Structure formats: structure tokens, C-alpha cells
Amino acid sequence: xxxxxxxxxxxxxxxxxxxxxxxxxxxxxxxxxxxxxxxxxxxxxxxxxxxxxxxxxxxxxxxxxxxxxxxxxxxxxxxxxxxxxxxxxxxxxxxxxxxxxxxxxxxxxxxxxxxxxxxxxxxxxxxxxxxxxxxxxxxxxxxxxxxxxxxxxxxxxxxxxxxxxxxxxxxxxxxxxxxxxxxxxxxxxxxxxxxxxxxxxxxxxxxxxxxxxxxxxxxxxxxxxxxxxxxxxxxxxxxxxxxxxxxxxxxxxxxxxxxxxxxxxxxxxxxxxxxxxxxxxxxxxxxxxxxxxxxxxxxxxxxxxxxxxxxxxxxxxxxxxxxxxxxxxxxxxxxxxxxxxxxxxxxxxxxxxxxxxxxxxxxxxxxxxxxxxxxxxxxxxxxxxxxxx
Length: 389
What we know:
Layout: H1 3-6, E1 9-14, H2 15-29, E2 34-38, H3 40-44, H4 48-58, E3 62-65, H5 68-76, E4 83-85, H6 94-99, E5 103-106, H7 109-122, E6 126-133, E7 141-142, H8 148-159, E8 164-171, H9 181-203, E9 210-214, H10 216-221, E10 229-230, E11 252-257, E12 260-264, E13 269-270, E14 276-277, E15 282-287, E16 304-307, E17 310-315, E18 323-326, E19 338-342, H11 348-355, H12 359-365, E20 372-376, E21 379-384
Helix pairs in contact: 2-4, 7-8, 11-12
């Protein structure tokens, strides 16, 4: 990777912060509960291979991705840990799931039947985790209300199919990260239904080695819901509303630098649409970062980047590749000076709040043309530019 690419815009991934976040979760769950790290969507933009490699070193028991392609990338890069594919895999690709030693989520009897037939055809056995819909209303066997008996029967049938190894069963909470009484009641009802399903299946002789439902929100609030394994997602990356409660550190810092400085007279319009006009002489810095890099256009005029000398407010609209900031009163900031978009000094959660969204969206949006620098003990140990892959 050429050094010029690193002096434009880059993301620093702090593998020590990742280790801290993992260990904080481990302290909470204890040695008997397994840890599944969510590394889908390129580890929320942090780099799935590098994050998975560090999690393996730390002792994570399982990893989870969204698709077969994401899982294949990990295997091709030497990741040996068990991997759960959370999303849909076409049944005709069952042989690849088996060959790569992957675990496939099964969310309906028809899917189980298709995987079973495909596994028989290729002469292998597919390890599966059953997905139960207790209130997310997305994927999973329907078990709420009048669907309970039929759902339990369908799960039992799916688990009895040939060439399927039903290792686990799980559900997904819709509002475990919310603190309101209604959301707490909803989460507890989801958990109650899940336990009823487990009991009903146990009465039929069907038990599972891994029962899991605790995401980041449940990790912070509901220790009774840890069961056999927890599934931290955003908590692993040190973001989300529970970061202080859990003692987490942000793993990603998105940075850029000042490429140009210009002094404009008063009455000068800045950027597209002329949404900002200088009121007097203004020292303006141009940053080589824009919405194509992951700096949301909706933050135009609503945030400041962080410099070593203080905040520098964004002026006018964020462009595709560039952003203008106000450096008036910051004479220490010069061409080449680093700026932080989000990270330790300005959490991604704060920018997400301005956009009325979640920090996941910001980290996932950091584009593949932004190099990732992986740090341990403050030193760069690896560089990755996804644009070249």
C-alpha cells in the first residue's frame, strides 16, 4: 500500500481496545458461558479477518457472519474457529458449508428439509442452529401465541431430519438495548417464550449443546439470559449506549488530514448549494474525506472534526471526496495536520445521534477505499486496503 493513500483518510483499528472489550464481557459472563463474536459486515467495518484473528487469539469460542461468502473469506485467511452463518444460504451450496466446516442457521422446516436433502446428496452432515422467532418478527420458526404447538413440532421435525446435526438453538431480541419498562417487559416475554420452547422440546427428548439469545443489550442488562453462549455485536467494537456501563473502548478511529488551507473574505459561499456564507475573514481547511468515504452528507453543518488544537466545525455541504472546516482561531492546525472524525475524542454514538441513527451504520459505512491500520500497543502491525482485494 502506498504511503500517499495513508495520508489521505484512514481508519485506525485498535486491537488492544478490542481485547479490552472482549475481556470485559468475559468477566461478566464467567468461564462457563461461551463467547460468540459477531464479525458480519466485515466486522462492522473494522475488518473481519483481522478482528477474527484477534478473537481467536483471545479465546473466543465462536464467530458469526451473515453469509457463506463472509465465512469463506475467514476460512481462506486461516480462521479455524467455529463459524455460524446467520443469514440464508441457498441449499445447493450445502456442500460448501460442509466442506468449510460451517454451522448454518435454519429458520423454517422447509429450509431444514432442503438442507437435509442436499447434505444427503453430497454425503455429508451439516451442523445447524435453529432460529426461533419470539418477537423480532424477521427470521425463525413461529412460536408465539397460537403458533406455539405447531412451531415446536416443526422444530422437532427439523432436528430429526437425516444428515443434520442440531448443535444449537437461538432467538434474537428486538429491544434488549432499551431501558424503558415496556421494552424490558417485551424482552422478558421473548425470553419466557424461548424457555417454553426449550422445555417443550426437552419433553420430546430434544436438547441442544448451545442455547443462546443474549446480544449486546442483554449482556449489559440480563445476566439470567446468558444461557450457554452470548453474542456481543456492537459491544465488541466499543460503541452503543452501553459502552460506559460495560467499560468499553472504541475500536475504530476514523481520521483524515488537512490537505489545503485558504483564507476567504467575508461574503464567500462555501460548497454545493451555497448553504454557508462567511461572515468575515475565514481560514478554511479542506479535508480529503467525503460521503464516498463514509462521512455522511447529513452531518453537513452539524458537527465539528477534532484537531489537536480544538474542534473545527464543518462548513457547507460535505462533498463526495472533500469536506471544508473552519480553522479560524486554530493557527496551530496546518496542512498535514491530523483530524479525527470519530473515535476516542468523539464517539461514533454522538454523530449517530445527530443523524437519528445507530453507530453501527457509521462504522459499516466507512468505505473500502479507506485504508485500515491495525494497532497493538500503539504501533501499526498491519495495513489493509480493501479497494485492492
